[in-house]
Design brief:
Shape: elongated
Number of strands: 18
Strand order of the largest sheet: 4-8-9-10-11-18-15-14-13
Low-confidence stretches: none
Helix content: 25-40%
Length: about 600
């Protein structure tokens, strides 16, 4: 193929496989499966899934709302699993089933280029199928797979890059998913001689691939710049997982195919992205799921890749724990498996128990790293204008004894009318009332509001942060600060100080699925052999109550959840509300907490 000095494909490895997992790694994987119990379990789970797929119908061209995403992800999951297991076992049945899946998707009318992230995820599937199975494919199979990639992924993306007014300049998830997905496809097919003897078609494909990869390199920094310097991602943990998965897959493929990631892995915050996931994950495996995210986002095999790339064994420890909890590991969990994890406590030096992520203004505090029953609390300020945000400034989650006592309900169905548009703030799960914060006059927070952490002090016995929430409800509240502390590593203190020029009704709330018993200024929550004592220290006239959730179909119904609330009786202009939450195991004494916030 004709090449120039500025051609990003000039160092392309000519043989296959060249993406992510080279043949030279397969013996290492087989030894790990033999010698490592967790690798063997991952292998067994993937083998069982591959066997199940042998009798499962292939995917169909079927939309959910405006999206083909469910089908794209199904094809990706199936092809990555089957192709990897074929390479490890050399079982022809797995290869044939993967090819059948790809053949069905190649016949789709399109891969929904109007929402190009759907196309990018399908391109990811075809990149792996074409490259990982290349040496077992017939010439005809290679040709129709490449043609599908060109006509359904590469040809549609070139005018998008030329317009450059949508996701190529976007700073959020679509940028990284789209660039990485089509970038993988380019690396898979570029340079292969499949067509006429003169090679004109092959040269045309190569030139398109070079054009697309060059455009992807120009576009990716827009998305990568959104990582905070501590590795945070503003769209929430579900989007952190999707974005970081795609970034790591593409960076890995660049290294194996080109021996060069062009400095992208050195972009600020990328190396620390795993720290964000670790600090944002509670001891029982649930994440702080602010915004449109579930509290269980599944495995994150990119943590294994980052553990090796950045020499950070706690990343592998995090993914080992996630895989141990999951019954559905990913193919990348085996491809990138790291057998040498170390907990943050075992790292040198040991990681701190507390962390702040600036920009998002999230603080996370815990009592221990290695105890699944330990105490964990996370609280957020942030920006209600962020994509996929909820109106939840000041909200927190609380874990202890393996129980999530203070919960975030997460996202609702994206296909609800206007959920991502004009009706978003009418739905219960996005509204302020469903979050663990203060509610003023039963109204939502301002959709443009921001809140920042203004003070912090982390110490072994009393770690705390202060968030300025004064701009959250303009016209209602003149000043509001929320202070949240982890006291003696045994309890959580929450102090809200409010000043308003006009009397306002204030409700303190905490969403929970635990059993609640209320007695005036005290409440006791019980679940799974543990209790959480909740006490109002001040003001003396405040009392606890319980409110039912107020969502109705077609919204999610939130079964078993209630909201523990504090009622003040009357509207107020001044409020100093202090609450202490103390977890303890049933049958053991409740810890006595005397600590207070500094004046």
């Amino acid at each position: 193929m004709a090449q120039t000095d500025d051609d990003p494909l000039r160092q392309l490895k000519p043989s296959h496989p060249r993406l992510i997992l080279l043949d030279s790694e397969l013996d290492r994987l087989r030894l790990l499966v033999r010698d490592n119990a967790l690798a063997r379990r991952i292998y067994s789970d993937l083998e069982r899934e591959s066997d199940r797929l042998l009798t499962t119908p292939v995917s169909e061209y079927k939309f959910v709302g405006p999206r083909l995403r469910a089908q794209s992800r199904r094809v990706l999951d199936r092809v990555s699993t089957l192709a990897l297991m074929y390479r490890v076992t050399m079982r022809d049945s797995y290869q044939k089933r993967a090819v059948a899946e790809l053949h069905a998707a190649a016949a789709f009318r399109d891969w929904n280029p109007a929402i190009y992230s759907d196309t990018a995820e399908m391109a990811h599937a075809f990149a792996l199928g074409y490259d990982w199975l290349y040496n077992s494919l017939t010439p005809e199979e290679r040709l129709w797979m490449r043609d599908a990639i060109v006509t359904k992924a590469i040809d549609p993306v070139i005018p998008i890059y030329q317009r450059d007014n949508t996701w190529p300049r976007d700073h959020f998830n679509a940028n990284l998913v789209c660039n990485s997905g089509v970038g993988l496809a380019v690396l898979a097919i570029a340079g292969d001689k499949l067509s006429d003897p003169a090679g004109k078609a092959d040269q045309a494909v190569y030139e398109k691939c070079s054009t697309v990869l060059r455009a992807a390199f120009e576009s990716l920094p827009h998305g990568l710049s959104t990582y905070g310097v501590e590795g945070s991602w503003p769209e929430g943990m579900a989007y952190w997982e999707t974005v970081t998965r795609y970034v790591c897959v593409f960076l890995s493929a660049l290294q194996t195919a080109l021996s060069n990631d062009y400095g992208l892995s050195a972009f600020h915050g990328v190396d620390r992205a795993g720290r964000f996931r670790i600090h944002m994950t509670g001891p029982a495996g649930k994440v702080f799921n602010f915004g449109d995210s579930a509290d269980d986002i599944g495995v994150a095999p990119e943590m294994y890749w980052m553990a090796k790339r950045f020499a950070l064994p706690p990343y592998a420890w995090s993914e080992q724990r996630a895989v141990e909890r999951s019954s559905h590991p990913d193919a990348y969990d085996l491809a990138w498996f790291d057998p040498s994890p170390k907990s943050p406590q075992q790292a040198q030096p040991p990681w701190p128990l507390d962390a702040i992520f600036r920009g998002l203004d999230i603080a996370c505090m815990r009592s221990a790293w290695d105890d699944p029953a330990s105490l964990y609390v996370a609280v957020k300020g942030g920006d209600n204008k962020s994509p996929h945000a909820h109106l939840d400034l000041g909200s927190f989650v609380l874990d202890a004894g393996g129980v999530r006592w203070a919960a975030d309900l997460g996202s609702d169905d994206y296909d609800l009318p206007g959920y991502l548009g004009p009706r978003r703030w009418t739905y219960y799960r996005t509204r302020t009332e469903s979050h663990n914060t203060l509610l003023f006059d039963d109204q939502n927070q301002d959709t443009r509001a921001e809140a920042r952490i203004t003070r912090q002090d982390f110490s072994p016995d009393f770690s705390w942060v202060q968030i300025d929430l004064s701009r959250v409800n303009p016209g209602k509240v003149k000043q509001w600060t929320r202070r949240l502390a982890l006291a003696q590593r045994q309890a959580v203190l929450i102090a809200d100080s409010v000043h308003s020029d006009q009397p306002v009704d204030v409700i303190w709330g905490m969403m929970t699925d635990a059993d609640i018993t209320i007695s005036g200024q005290t409440a006791t929550l019980k679940k799974n052999g543990w209790s959480l004592a909740v006490e109002i220290r001040s003001p003396r006239h405040a009392v606890f109550d319980r409110a039912e959730v107020r969502s109705t179909p077609p919204q999610a119904l939130n079964p078993n959840f209630h909201k523990l609330i504090v009622r003040l009786g009357d509207k107020v202009t001044e409020l100093d509300l202090n609450i202490v939450l103390t977890p303890y195991k049933d049958g053991q004494p409740k810890p006595k907490i005397t600590a207070q916030f500094p004046v």
